[in-house]
Every structure is written in structure tokens, then in C-alpha cells.
Amino acid sequence: MPSLLANKWTKVPIFLFCLVPLGVLVWRALTANLGANPVEFIQHATGDWTLRFLVSTLSITPLRKLLKLPDLIRFRRMLGLFGFFYACLHFLTYLGPDQSFDLAAIWRDIAKRPFITVGFTAFVLLIPLAITSTAGWIRRLGGRRWQILHRAIYISVICGVIHYYWLVKSAVLRPLTYAAIVAVLLLWRLGDWLIRRSRTIRTAAKTQRASASG
Amino acid sequence: MLIQRKPSLTYADVTPKELYFNRRKFLKAMGMAGAAAFAGKNLLDIVSPPGGVHAGAKFTNLVKSPFSTTEKANSFEDVTHYNNFYEFGIDKDAPAKNAQKFRTSPWTVSVEGEVKTKRKFTMDEIQKLAPLEERIYRHRCVEGWSIVVPWIGFSFNVLAKLVEPTPKAQFVAFESDWDLGQMPKARPELAGIEFPYVEGLRMDEAMHPLTLLTVGMYGDSLPNQDGAPVRMVIPWKYGFKSIKSIVKIKFVAKEPPITWNLANSHEYGFYSNVNPNVDHPRWSQAKERRLGEIFRRNTLMFNGYQDQVANLYTGMDLKKYY
Known about the structure:
The complex is a heterodimer of chains A (214) and B (322). Chain A is an all-alpha fold and 214 residues long. Chain A has one domain (2-178). Chain A contains eleven helices and no strands. Chain A has helices at 2-6, 11-18, 20-30, 38-66, 76-98, 103-112, 114-131, 135-141, 143-150, 152-167, 173-213. Chain A is globular and about 75 Å long. In chain B, strands 1, 4, 5, 8, 9, 10, 12 and 13 form an eight-stranded mixed sheet that branches. Chain B has twelve helices and 13 strands. The termini of chain B are far apart. Chain B is α+β, with helices and mostly antiparallel strands. Chain B is 21% helix and 20% strand. Chain B has two domains: 13-47, no CATH class; 59-313, Oxidoreductase, molybdopterin-binding domain (Sulfite Oxidase, Chain A, domain 2). Chain B is globular.
């Protein structure tokens, strides 16, 4: 397993796998199989897949630590970028079919409707992350600053889940499922950070004691 | 030797119902075979002409109605595969799958409350109360989509007059069937609403000739997923007011509770008239997507029935009474 993850060719099947949701949509469109409301079908599917990819992206770090598979990191950028890709498609269904590209109306809508506001926020936050996802940008920003910037995904995914929750009429089970998964992934990070911090403090204290007695 | 004469064929013999409900699956299979990937949509139109009368049409001699719109009706396929009927699941395509075995016969509708003659109606009795009319109505869902449907029925006021409401009757309360044995998904924790589904109208709304007691569509009985065997259709109100699969009608003195208002009183009011100027707290109601169209069109005041019904609400603040 670890060697498979490290193999440079593993990215290819995963890349193709990430395209399957799009392929399914295209196939359904060609066979007139998008249901009675095709726009809504595409909108819901792309929204769903955005959340799924963002959740997958967020689960890489906990998984690689818990399963001791550090090579999983190699797929994080791809998953994140696919999240952004499906978010773009999702946003396009809103710009075009929903709002007929009427920019003034879109702006009013974003300002007025909390459910659009949070959805738009979630989307906009992903843009700088997608742009700075390259190795060059990590170098330019420096690892530490890059990391801080990319924590924006936490806010983006939270906004995304709220957007979903505010959209549904009464059946909140599905958005709440996403909320629960995101909560677990973020709480794990908090726990991990607290443990690391206490460890650093202890080590620092030890060093201090050692130097004092020396 | 006894020679039995076969009964003469009816329209129903032409296409067995299971078959025409499975048309979509059949077409899908054809698509899979790669026979007509791109022709899929056109093929569908040929088999099921939008708004056309279908094989097995049960009702004949339908009276044409002046209330009908001249707009093109949606396809039978769309209207039977895109339903909000939470008793059979919350997804739009769930009722088409889960309602097929729902038993709608025998069926009785109990009429109660502030009336001189309380009584139960069988479906047979209901269908004979008045000449059946075909009424092609616009139907606008609170979610922002719309359809045009050729319903079959007659004005609800026919039934109401028959049971003679007393002067105390100010509202009419309706109740849907709720049978967990047949509707395993009709649970509040799954659907987010309480059951049985209840709805209501003010007396003058109920007595308005547009208010349709509906027993069929597209020339035939109502499909289960569209509220068989009997439902209401109130075309100037959001779709959820048009309660399905009715078992009880009660004339009452006070405004009755209605399901969506109970679920979220801030978002769904008792009146729920289609109104492009009063937004849902979460989304705009100014536009709607007609099924079969890509871009949204403007929503009309009272869903385009302003001339007929605006006088019911003279002097009322429609923002307050949403």
C-alpha cells in the first residue's frame, strides 16, 4: 500500500476517478436522463460533489497521521482542485440558468440572501487557494504563510455546509450529515494541535530545566 | 360446449399501465445500447406527446373549461416524475418509485364539521357529483419551479353546496391519508414535517370556482404520485396548498393548522398565494423555472389568476398574510 501511494502513476487513475461525476452528468445529458428539471439536477449534483471533494481534502491530513500513510499528501491538492472545479460548475449553473448572467441581479441576490451569501463566500474563498496551489506559490509565500492561507478551506467548507442547510426545505438530515463529518475533521485538528502544543511546552520546560541545572 | 365471448377491448388494453410507466426504463435501455443516444429526448416526445392524451384514457366527454390556459402543458413524464409528496419520500423522483403500490380503492372521503349533512363519499360518488371538466392550470411550487397540467375534476363548491355548510363554517380543513404500512417514509424524522398532511382554505377561497376538486389528469385517473385518487388544486396558491390523497374534509369555524406552517411558520403562511413581490425568507419568488426550460421566467401575481381572485384579498396586506 505505501509503495503504491508513492508510485508516480497512481495519480492517473485517481484523476480519472475524480472525473467520473462529470462523466455521469454528461452521459445523462446526452441520453436525456437528467429528470424533469435538468438544471436543478446538475446544480444539486455539482454542489454535492463540491462538498464531497472538500471533505475528502480535509480528511487527508487526519488519515495520513492515523493510518501512518504520509504519502497520502500527494493527492490532497488534486482533491482540493477538483472540489474547486465542481464548485465552478455549480456557480456557473447559478450565473447562467438561474440568473441569466444578469450581474446586477446577481449582486443584489448575493447581498440580500444569506443562503446565497454563504455559498458565494464559500466559492470565493476557494479561488486564492486554487491559484496558490502550485509548488511555485508555496515557495513564494513560504511554507508557514501558505499554510495559514490555506486554512481558509475550513471556513469555505463550513460556509458550504451552511449553504446546503439553508437551501433545504425541511429534510435537514443530509446537510447535517456533512456538518457532522466536517465537525469531526475539524475537531480532530483542534485535538491534534492541543496535543502538539502541550508537547512543545513540556519539551521547552524540560530544556529550560536542563539549562538551569547545567 | 360453452363458447365464451371475449369482452370487447378498451383503451386500457392497448398499453398496459406497467408498461407505459416503464417507458423511461425502456428508453434508457435503448440509450445504453447506443442505438439513439442523441435522439433520446426526441424519441421521448414521440412516445409521449407533451400534454397529449394517453393510451388508456379513462375519462371521455370531458367538458372544456374557460379557465384553461392556452399555454403548452408539460409532458406526462415530467408531471409524474417530479413530485413533492413527502409521504413517499423527499426526493422529487421518490414518489414515482414508492407510490406505485399505494391502494386507492376502496377509498372514502369523510365530510364533517359545520355542515347540515355529514357524510362519506366513495370515489364513485365523487366522480358523479358533476360533469368532469378538463382544466389546464399553471402550477407554481414555492420552491421556484412550475408546470402546466391538464387536470380533471370540478369546482370544489359543488361538493360543498351539497353538504350545506352552516353559517359557522368559515374555513375548510383538509387531511391526507397517512398509512405507515403503505408509506414507510411518512415519518417526521425522515420528512421534516408532521403527518398526516393537513391543509386549509378560507371559505370564500374554497368556494371560488377555480378551486378544483381533482380526480384525474391527462385524460386519466390521477397517478398515485400525483395525489390519487382525489386531491385539491388551487392554481393561484403555491403547490403545497393543493393537498393530495384526501381522506377528510372538515368545515370549521377557525383557521385550521396547515402542515408547512406548523413546520416553519416564518416561511410558510396560511394563505401562501403566489406573489412575485413577497419573497420567501431564503429565496426570491420573482422568477420560476418552468420544467422543460433552462432560464427562469417571471412569476405572475396570483400565478396569473389575478383577474379571477384578486378581489378575495381586497384590503389585505399580502406581505403580512403571506
